[in-house]
Amino acid sequence: MNNVSISCQINYLNNTPEPSIIAFASPESARYAGKFHRSLPNYAPTPLVKLSKLANHLGVKEILVKDESRRFDLNAFKVLGASFAIAKYLGEMLALKDDELTFSKILAEQSRYKHLTFVTATDGNHGRAVAWSAKLFGCTAVVYLPKGSSAARLEAIRNYGAEASITAMNYDDTVIHANQKAQEKGWILLQDTSWEGYEKVPRHVMQGYSTLVTEFLDQEQEIWPTHVLVQAGVGSLAAGILACFCNLSERPALKFIVVEPKGAPCLFESKKRNELFTVKGDLPTIMAGLACGEPSHIGWDILQSAASAFLMCSDEVARRGMKVLGNPLAGDQRIISGESGAVTLGALFEILSNKDLYKIKEELDLNGDSRVLLFSTEGDTDAELYREIVWL
Question: Most buried among 17, 180, 294, 311, by the most CB within 10 A?
Fold first, then answer.
């Protein structure tokens, strides 16, 4: 299609990151995060789906997709970070050691912390995760959404008992607003992005994301990926997953590719300048969960030092991914993936099938021996938009 657009920057400067900046994602830390998540009510690992027919169609050896539409009842991965960050905060307050951090041990002390309020800014999924987690632990949540957020996303957050509202600001200004409210009212700010002076909580959020990698390692004993594509908003998820893989030093090296929307390419633009860069304005993209203008400082430090490439994709690429995942080849499993969840599959599909993108295919060394791991980070979290895209 003429409106398909993918730009690629190879990170020729990439090397092994400093051990200090990925230490938070050590195998030991990942074990603690995984133990905590397994202690939550109704926990189950999300499926790892092998799309063998699609891989054969596109000319690669394997395509594996971690399907986060099955994560608790939240339909998205964000709860892994939010729940663990809240648990870490409460655990420190209760003087619990990392290996003692379980849901039952924290809940047993609820009377000591139930007065707490957690506040956050969100494009949708993170806010629902904070609301769900706060309710689970018996705390209060206040959630602010940027202008343009759908009524469905707002209602989904309120359904978990949070006080939620849509602001007249973009995402980054809404984060500033949430931070101001936290300082004014003595609330606890719980963001998955970081800036100078605000790093501890975002690092705990990123530690929570390590369960994605832990589950993958448990689920797949034979196939090791040559390529991992991960979508990015502020970059916390991508950096958290990359840090986990970098800490598996005994495993073969892999190519790690960061995927962003054309309307909000803060990491792509930072890479172009080789310095942290904020994209201003309204950040127009259907990928609501990735519509972030300012990168996470922690995330950028990791990605600039170890990511193999940065992709910037038009909205049509995400639409393609949603349609392909939702309408699989015979023999492959269907995956319901939202606009932010499907962009990596859309990018892979276009790069491997669109002759105009052959140069990118060569630059990324995608070929018949490639084994590609993707994370479908959300299901149809906005069901009306999902239907509009896949039906039309």
Answer: 311
